[in-house]
Amino acid sequence: MNPLNPPKRLLMGPGPSMVAPRVYAAMAKPIVGYLDPYCLEIIGDIQQMLRVAFGTKNEFTIPISGTGSAGMEAAIANFTEPGAKFAVFANGFFSDRITEMARRQGGNVVRFEKPWGEVYGDAEAADFIRREKPQVVAYVQAETSTGAFQTGKAICQAAHDAGALVIADCVTSLGGIPVEVDATGIDIAYSCSQKGLSCPPGLSPFTVSPRAWAWLEKRAAPVQSWYLDLRLLDTYFRGRKYHHTISISLLYALREGLALAVEEGMEARWERHRRNHLAFVAAIEKMGLRMHVAEPKNRLWTLQSPRVPAGVDDAKVRKRMLDVDGIEILGGFGQLAGQVFRIGLMGSSSTEENIALVLDSLQKAMQAETVTAGKG
Amino acid sequence: MNPLNPPKRLLMGPGPSMVAPRVYAAMAKPIVGYLDPYCLEIIGDIQQMLRVAFGTKNEFTIPISGTGSAGMEAAIANFTEPGAKFAVFANGFFSDRITEMARRQGGNVVRFEKPWGEVYGDAEAADFIRREKPQVVAYVQAETSTGAFQTGKAICQAAHDAGALVIADCVTSLGGIPVEVDATGIDIAYSCSQKGLSCPPGLSPFTVSPRAWAWLEKRAAPVQSWYLDLRLLDTYFRGRKYHHTISISLLYALREGLALAVEEGMEARWERHRRNHLAFVAAIEKMGLRMHVAEPKNRLWTLQSPRVPAGVDDAKVRKRMLDVDGIEILGGFGQLAGQVFRIGLMGSSSTEENIALVLDSLQKAMQAETVTAGKG
Question: For residue A370, is pLDDT > 80?
Fold first, then answer.
């Protein structure tokens, strides 16, 4: 087997983002067992810092042993009993994934559809919930497929008035945008390690409100997933008994990634993401590209989705950026396939220098592709 | 946040085992995206080496993004339709876990019970399957809770004669004992990264026979788990389309851990495990302890389960070994709580020096505890 020698990429896609040297160093530290007092101490550190990042006092705040999609499945599998009415705000790829998972759990899914990239106003969101009277409501706070940010207060208020629990997908917000679980009223939030927190992928930060936990304790139907059963996970995280063998190396990484965020200060970190987002938008508009999300206030600071100019093949542009400059960005999919570039400014990747590098590479690649296309 | 400074443990429990420096170094390498050509190349390397370790030609041989228990759930969720008769050889903690998962998937579980530590003879195993006519059969090749090894040829033959698929739990065998998926006739096997392969936890090596894959392609009922749906995972591993964001750092680690195994040579590696197991048994019997698994041929080479001598509190002994010598071993649970020590000789942990260290520490801790108990 030849030596492991990965290329050095500038990761400017929708995740993973760049990993800080301190996080890499953490993964090279000696591992310990999953019941070792040191492992439990590290978990305690992570829980404390995750509460800060999520903006919550929720006791049940843990890293789930899987990616963001495992977190999504944990949220849906634990809080959807067969036959339960499950309302989805459906405006992107990840709300479609939520829909699919909820159906697999036996949920009776109702959807409020909007074109990808649009968001929901307070009144229409509340009307939908009042009309449907669901048991569970799900929305995507930060839609990675479109670059749109969805506010949640009106959704949560209407859901609580209807006696429903609210699941929010915070995969692309945590660590880069205020998630504000408690202030918003979110009951169940999940995220990932490899975007705003700039760790390697593999863990899903997860939090459950006392209200949702009380519901779960009374749930009669068994949760189909044993691996993601939150009450069983609680026997490990609180009860300190074996459930599964948590990945200590990923815990080390997450602990250090969170420490970097908390040491920077969440407010300062959010402000850095906001400032760099605005600088990116100004620069890309100067290049003549248009942001897919029309309203500035609805744009994510973490994930930018400029539209691909007419006549440009986004796959060729992206391939050239990777091959020539070692820069990764991704394209659109689903409704937005071929229509947007998806450029991340997340965690360690969100710097002025990286904006200059990615835009310079993008411009050169588009020019080269246009010339090639003209010749071909 | 204080600096991350884990204690240096000698990991001699049922996993994780000691991680080689080359594997630690791999995790400090720069990450790339999940669709980066380099990531796909690393996955290809892993698949090729996993086939060698599993003893299979199965095309569908992948690392699942979760721990060994996620692999177990993937096996059961994909191959158990609601109402399907599911036969379990129930002789330990992990066959109880299989039972619980199969019931959650709607399986009609029938169990052939034996005391923990015993195994099944060919004739009685085949009789059970012939009598029950199940659609799925599950057994634990290497039972981590008891230290027992279960041969599989008779089980697989009888299952195939009955038209059933066979799931084998290989969590504690892969990399330390011949698994021999193809020669045994196993249809679905899963394992983990942190035992015989001596990588950090977080990935579950998984393989599916063409026969089982053909069944899966015809399965009508949707798999409840989206995250662990093998047909969806295939769209990533073969189709190279986004499903979830695989943990590239854990892939680097697994690639290097597998390379160490393949470079050592699987046969030489198994022989090292066998030799060290026999040396351990000879030494522990000389200390006056008795192996829980009575028949030498039924003992795992990877996980030793000597019985706790009368009057010894295993929890106190283990705590002292960890506190004084930094050595982790674990105790029994379930039927064997307080009755056995569980001592791993797996992957990098399986050395003559480690046997000497763990037995010296065990002996001193037992003496200290006996003296303390006598005084108290």
Answer: no
Residues from chain B that touch A252, judged by Cβ atoms under 8 A, are 4, 6
Q: Which is more confidently placed, A187 or A333?
A: A187
User: Cβ B194–A100 below 8 Å, yes or no?
Assistant: no
pLDDT digits (tens, 9 = 90+) for A200-240: 999 999 999 999 999 999 999 999 999 999 999 999 999 99
Cβ–Cβ of B244/A45 closer than 8 Å? no
Rounded to whole angstroms, how far apart are CA atoms A202 and A194?
Answer: 8
Please state whether beta strands A10-11 and A327-328 pair in parallel, antiparallel, or not at all (unpaired). parallel
Domain count, chain A: 2
pLDDT band for B316, please (50, 70, 90 cuts): very high
What spatial distance separates the first Cα and last Cα of chain B, rounded to whole Å?
A: 41
Give the domain range for residue B254.
Answer: 21-262
Q: Say how many CB pairs under 8 Å bridge A and B.
A: 230
Question: Which stretch of DSSP H or E encloses residue B109?
Answer: strand B108-113
- Provide the token pair at B200: 């950090």
User: Do B244 and B280 fall within a single domain?
Assistant: no
CA B54 to chain centre: 12
Tell me the CATH number at A298.
3.90.1150.10
Would an 8 Å CB–CB cutoff place B345 in contact with chain A? no
Q: Do B202 and A250 touch (CB under 8 A)?
A: yes
State CA A7 to chain mean position distance.
25
With a CB-CB cutoff of 8 Å, which residues 222-241 of chain B face chain A? 222-228
| Partner-chain residue, chosen from B200, B255, B330, that has the shortest CB–CB distance to A247 | B200
Q: Do A16 and B256 make contact, defined as CB atoms within 8 angstroms?
A: no
Q: Is residue A11 part of a domain?
A: no
B101 and A29 within 8 Å at the Cβ level: the answer is no
Q: Cα–Cα distance between A90 and A111 in angstroms, integer?
A: 6
Looking at the domain assignment, is residue A8 inside a domain? no
Whether residue B16 has a cis bond before it, omega within 30° of 0? yes
C-alpha–C-alpha distance, residues A183 and B83, integer Å: 45
ipTM exceeding 0.95, yes/no: yes
Q: Do A227 and B6 count as a contact with CB atoms less than 8 A apart? A: no
- A27, A78, A145, A260: which to substitute to probe chain B, counting the most B Cβ within 10 Å? A27
Pick the last residue of a domain from A234, A262, A290.
Answer: A262
Asked if A266 has any chain B CB less than 8 Å from its own CB, the reply is no
Cα angle, residue B164 at apex, residues B111 and A223 outer, rounded to 5°: 55
Instruction: Give chain B positions within 8 Å (CB) of A255.
Output: 1, 4
Q: Which residue, among A29, A227, A228, A336, would best test binding to B if mutated, counting the most B CBs under 10 Å from its CB?
A: A227
Strands laid side by side in the B330-331 sheet:
B303-304, B341-344, B330-331
Q: What pTM value is reported for the model?
A: 0.97
Determine how many CB atoms are found less than 10 A away from the CB of residue B195.
Answer: 31
Domain with residue A250: its CATH number is 3.40.640.10
Of A7-21, A358-372, B200-214, the poorest mean pLDDT is in A358-372
Q: Is A314 helix (H, G, I), strand (E, B) or coil?
A: helix
Flag whether residue B80 sits within 8 Å of chain A, measured between CB atoms. Answer: no
Do B233 and B299 have their domain in common? Answer: no
Q: Which residue of B has its CA nearest to A259?
A: B1
Q: Look-up: residue for tokens 């509460």?
A: A51
Task: Assign A1 a pLDDT band (cuts: 50, 70, 90).
Answer: confident
* Domain identity same for B252 and B301: no
- A107 and chain B in contact, CB less than 8 A: no
Collapsing DSSP states into helix, strand and coil, what is residue B275? helix
Is B213 near chain A, with CB under 8 Å? no
Residue A6 within a domain: no
Burial class (CB in 10 A: 0-12, 13-18, 19+), A117: buried
Contact predicate B173/B302, CB 8 Å: yes
d(C-alpha A306, C-alpha A331), whole Å: 10
